Amino acid sequence: MKYFNDLIINAAMEGSTDLHICANQSLVYRRNGFIVTEKAVQMTHQEIDEILLEILSPHQRQMLKTRWSVDFAYTVQHVRIRMNVFNTVRGLSMAIRLLPARIPSIAMLNLHPSLQKIAEQETGLILICGPTGCGKSTTTAAIVEEINRLRPSHIVTLEDPIEYRFTSKQAFVEQRELGAHVPSYRQGLLDVLREDPDVIVVGEIRDPEEIRLTLSAAESGHLVIASLHAGKAEEAVYRICNSFPPEAQNEIRLQLATTVSWIIIQDLVYSHKLKFQVPHLAILRGSQSVKSLIRENKLAQIENAMQGGKNEGMFTAERYVTEFLDKQESFTHPSLSFRATTEAQTDIEYASPLVKAGEPQAMPVSSRITPHPQAEAAEILAREIELLDISGHEPQYVIDGKENLVDLIAQMGKSEKK
């Protein structure tokens, strides 16, 4: 364990962003976007297994055993890391992402200063998009920290896993992790609307149910920040709408057009001049013209709207380079933003004995779209009633949303008398 800890500390001090450990293979780092191999350092299968037995919780070990992979965050001597453990032909491997000791500001990440305006918004949908490893989580954390620093609000996050630990400042921040505090994004999104939030932060949204609930949360007057895999703004809108069957897409487009405020496309590109990576952005703002294009399904014209939306704070990827990056006089080196710290985390983790950790029961996810709130409530109630009877000894009552409630109660009363 000491050897593993030393590897993490050394990687942090040398400015590595990622570390890959595979049995009987040379250690691999990623620095400034490039792979670096440390041939003199290797681990055996047994050493990897012993490390994982030490750091994985019982629930995480069970997930690894049944799913053959597990994703979690961990702290090594105050250095926060995100780990993915997965099974390979060589046994278990570890992909480790090193996280900044403190949440960097928007300026320290070399991002466009206009992103600070997001902290002033009270409603709307903010989408942070890009490929894996482009810094979406860090950009999201910087925006949330800006809100935390500037205005009194209640921020609730749903993360997989929790990467950055927030300390409440002007805002009151509560963080929930999938698998540890909530069984699914769907359940978390159903819960969060009952928790008096002002700002809702959702990790990567993937399936239609998560997307629908995210849009509904933004539509109900909250500021919602979510991430999505997409390389262009047009692709982000297309992916959201086409996650649904054709008969539901028009409604989803209307919801998206009503709520969208920012779509930020991010990538990390190595600068030969600076000798480190800097974020390249494309920014789409939810102007009236953009909302009309989405509503009317004219997605192919979004790029033109970004090109002509300079006065509204929009950038295409090309214009962002020429009009911002090329004119920027100074940049913050990533080592200043991502350096390790010797300061201990003041906010301790606590697991209540009232909750059986790792065994929450998620509601079944519906395969169809139920846009009407009353129909959705009936569907959820039906599922809950079905889940109540697991013994097989008592009759089950299934509500399909069409039955007369008086007749159903009478039917239940007759069964009780028998």
Average per-residue pLDDT, rounded, comes to: 84
Count every beta strand, where a strand is a DSSP E run of 2 or more residues. Answer: 13
Q: How much of the sequence is in beta strands?
A: 15-25%
Write the element-wise H/E pattern from the N-terminal end onward.
HEEEHHEEEEHEEHEHEHHEEHHHHHH
Describe the oligomeric state of these chains in a short phrase. single chain
Shape: globular
Q: Give the number of helices.
A: 14
Which key phrases capture this entry?
single chain; 418 residues; alpha/beta; Beta-Lactamase; Rossmann fold; 7-stranded mixed beta sheet; 13 strands
Characterization of the model:
β4 and β5 form a beta hairpin. The chain is globular and about 60 Å long. The protein has 418 residues and is α/β, with parallel strands linked by helices. Helices cover 35% and strands 22% of the residues. The protein folds into 3 domains: 97 residues, Beta-Lactamase, CATH 3.30.450; 225 residues, 3-Layer(aba) Sandwich (Rossmann fold), CATH 3.40.50; 45 residues, no CATH class. A 7-stranded mixed β-sheet has the order 9-8-10-11-7-12-13, sandwiched between helices. The protein contains 14 helices and 13 strands.
